[in-house]
Amino acid sequence: MLLRFTVANFASVRDEQELSAIAADRHDDIAVRAVPRTQHHVLPALGIFGPNASGKSNIVDALAFARSAVVNSHQRWRPNDPIPRRPFQLDPVREKEPSEFGIEFVAEGIRYQYGFVCDSVEFHEEWLYGYPEGRQRRLFERKRGTSIRFGQGLQGERKLIERLLRPNSLYLSAAAANGHAQLLPVYDWFAKHLRVAVEGNAHSRLQETRHLLEEHDAQAVLHLLRYADLGVGNVRFSDRKLQPEHAAKLADLLSVIEGEKISPSEISMGVDVEVTHLVGDREFELPMELESSGTQTWLALAGPVINALATGDVLVVDELDARLHHHLASQLVRLFQEPETNPNGAQLVFNSHDHSLLGHDTARLRRDQVWFTEKEDGATRCFPLTDYKVRSVENVEKRYLSGRYGAVPFFDEELLSAIAVEVSC
User: Fold this and answer.
1) How far apart are CA 107 and CA 11, in angstroms?
2) pLDDT recorded at residue 374
3) N or C: which end of the chain has fewer CB within 10 A?
4) Total domain count for the chain?
5) What values do phi and psi take at 60, rounded to 5?
């Protein structure tokens, strides 16, 4: 479970901002989970709302970057590669300063605090603390220019891994690459249990849907597709293959590039997807590209959603409302909110500018599940609805639209008048 996330000096985020999944109120009717060895509970869903360009997606991007650094920095980033962080660029001083990321989470029943500080060249700091018995225990602390300080509880080849460390790789990433058994559960939380759905990985998410359907006969995926009332009866996938001689040549070339043997059978030029629709007593198959954008979006989300619900993972979705009707978006939130459909305590973190989700009876977002973003002097501020006194959730949408909580766009009527003058000339 994800408990808290903090970020500073990344994209439009200048000063440190926090997103917390710790429940501020008691909720007996949604799928909250107890945080081990604390009095706290964690929420099953968090929604970030705000106008366009307020930084909603940058909060998601920051979390995705932190995940990527853990998973990829040691094995996939080359020694001289720059660290692909994006500092705040509207302040010349801040742009040259490092970025900072912190994540508090629970993996295999143990609460952890992990974080790092980096510029575009190297990691300045990195730390990991565990709370196996409720009290903080240091696993390691790394600071640029000094040896890593290890806690007494961290065993294994600690020093050997430190010698293999590069300035542009994280110790946690290097430890996992070298099979450090004690740190693998922490690494696996990032690699396997923190899922991020953005437009750029729609293809891999579609492949996840395919894998569930073909390898596991996951009827829950088909049920989810049919539940959306998109007219989908079934889905069929097929790989587009090259001619054998062309596949062999391409496999040889890729083997040299990747440094490992690639079989011609692994070469695919893409995937054909056909969606079956039942009209009366007849079936019709349509290629994926002829389906509505809503159907395509739902199909690419179906696999990750079912996997997250089945394994209790954290699913982070950028622009949940993009190409989805707000009723369908609210039903997706409901899957994570309801204890019946979320028995394993999965979490959904999403951003949206669909204000109707705030007042939708299906999503049933509580006040501590609602966060807002807005710009102040060009920098993103992220704040919870609990900063305001709200008697009930029923009128949150109306108050939000009226500007009661901020985080709404400002429309300059003088500019509209100027446009009218220009177009009438």
Assistant:
1) 28
2) 94
3) C
4) 2
5) -65, -45
Q: Work out whether strand 370-376 and strand 45-49 pair parallel, antiparallel, or are unpaired.
A: parallel
The answer to whether residue 409 is domain-embedded is yes
Asked whether residue 223 falls in the same domain as residue 357, the answer is: no
Query: H-type helices in 85-197, by residue range?
Result: 92-95, 158-164, 171-177, 184-192
Same domain, 3 and 130: yes
Residues 232, 177, single domain; the answer is no
pTM, to two decimals:
0.84
Structural domain of residue 151, as residue ranges?
Answer: 1-193+312-413
The answer on 316 and 304 residing in a single domain is: no
- Rounded to whole angstroms, the Cα distance separating 32 from 22 reads 9
> How far from each other are the two terminal CA atoms of the chain, in whole angstroms?
59
pLDDT at 267: 57
- Find residue 285's DSSP bridge partners: 276
Handedness of CA 334, 343, 369, 1 (dihedral sign): negative
228 neighbors 331 (Cβ within 8 angstroms): yes
Give the domain CATH number at 61: 3.40.50
- In one-letter notation, the amino acid at residue 284 is F
Specify the residue for token string 């003088």.
Answer: 414
* Dist CA 390 CA 380 (whole Å): 23
> Is position 144 within any domain?
yes
Stretches in the chain below the pLDDT threshold 50? 400-402, 407-413, 415-416, 419-420, 422-424
Which one of 260, 291, 308 terminates a domain? 308
